[in-house]
Design a protein that fits this description.
Layout: E1 2-6, E2 15-25, E3 31-35, E4 56-60, E5 77-87, E6 93-102, E7 111-114, E8 122-125, E9 129-132, E10 137-140, E11 145-152, E12 155-160, E13 163-168, E14 172-174, E15 181-183, E16 193-195, E17 198-208, E18 213-223, E19 237-240, E20 243-246, E21 248-249, H1 251-259, E22 266-276, E23 281-285, E24 291-293
Antiparallel strand pairs: 1-4, 2-3, 2-5, 5-6, 7-11, 7-15, 8-11, 8-14, 9-10, 11-12, 12-13, 16-17, 17-18, 18-22, 19-20, 19-23, 21-22, 23-24
């Protein structure tokens, strides 16, 4: 959980701990309780950084890992709570539960996030981080900022200057006020992008539901704005919430690309990607080249 909490006392606090707890009951016999560790605050509350009355302090709590097998079940009850303990220099001690809410269990499968104005929240990098995706590798340093698009368990999908990749959530802190909200889809980036002198644009995204593994079908329109015959590439990768998969073009698309795209003309290709049933498709693109966000192919967990 990420957010801000205000000092409710009329005195300065020099010791404070915010603990996050996740509780889920699956049956009368089976339940679990997972708690976070550490102080929970992005900036420690201590004598050098006292917490003044009415001051808001950013927090980030991550509970102990959940066994992935439980993601296959729906609990009878799932709750999240925040417990705040404080101590003043004069010896006053206060401990209280400051928040209890239902735990959005579906979010454990991964969710897009946005602020109340429907934009991806801005985050600050708190430690050296290596951001990876099938399309790029990016190194970020403490103090760098990025946009957070998706959360999948302990990983966040961040974007900086059109470069997108995964990084650990424990190295992120919110920059702008207002808690992110979960959403099921995100806008499709439908503007054309160039690759090897050809222009690519997504015209259709479709998810095919199967018993074992689903698949995602992506239709591209490829245009040639140049003066020479262009050779289109079908070697794309789909990045999803649990991994990635390579493109499987149909025979017609392979044949059209083999012939090339004449100057001033365009062609269409259809690429299929295997997808685990519980996964969400996120982006499709070229290694070291452009990538596109996907929408309209999401399945409820």
């Amino acid at each position: 959980m990420l957010g801000e909490v205000m000092n409710p006392l009329d005195e300065v606090v020099h010791r404070a701990t915010l603990t996050g707890v996740a509780f889920a009951r699956f049956s009368e016999e089976t339940a679990f309780l997972k708690a976070s560790s550490g102080s929970g605050f992005v900036t420690e509350v201590d004598s050098d950084h006292p917490w003044k009355p009415g001051e808001k302090r950013a927090f980030k709590v991550i509970t102990r890992p959940l066994d992935p097998i439980y993601c296959l079940y729906t609990p009878m009850k799932a709750l999240a709570a925040l417990n705040l303990s404080m101590e003043t220099p004069l010896g006053q001690r206060v401990e209280d539960v400051v928040m209890v809410s239902e735990l959005p269990w579906g979010a454990l499968h991964g969710r897009f996030v946005q602020t109340r104005d429907e934009t991806p929240p801005q985050v600050r990098i708190t430690d050296n981080a290596l951001v990876r995706s099938p399309f790029t590798t990016l190194r970020l340093a403490p103090g760098d900022t990025a946009r957070l698009h998706y959360i999948s368990r302990d990983r966040g999908l961040v974007e900086q200057e059109s470069r997108v990749g995964w990084m650990d959530m424990d190295k992120l802190a919110l920059v702008q006020p207002g808690l992110p909200t979960f959403t099921t889809t995100r806008p499709t980036e439908d503007e054309p992008r160039s690759h090897r002198d050809l222009s690519y644009a997504i015209t259709q995204v479709r998810r095919v539901l199967n018993d074992d593994n689903d698949s995602v079908s992506v239709r591209f329109q490829i245009s040639n704005p140049g003066e020479r015959v262009g050779r289109c590439s079908l070697g794309m990768t789909l990045m999803h919430s649990t991994g990635d998969s390579n493109a499987e073009p149909d025979e017609g698309s392979v044949e059209r690309c083999r012939k090339g795209v004449e100057p001033g003309s365009n062609t269409e290709v259809v690429l299929s990607f295997m997808l685990p049933t519980s996964a969400a498709p996120l982006r499709v693109g070229f290694s070291g080249g452009p990538s596109w966000a996907l929408d309209g192919a999401h399945r409820a967990p």
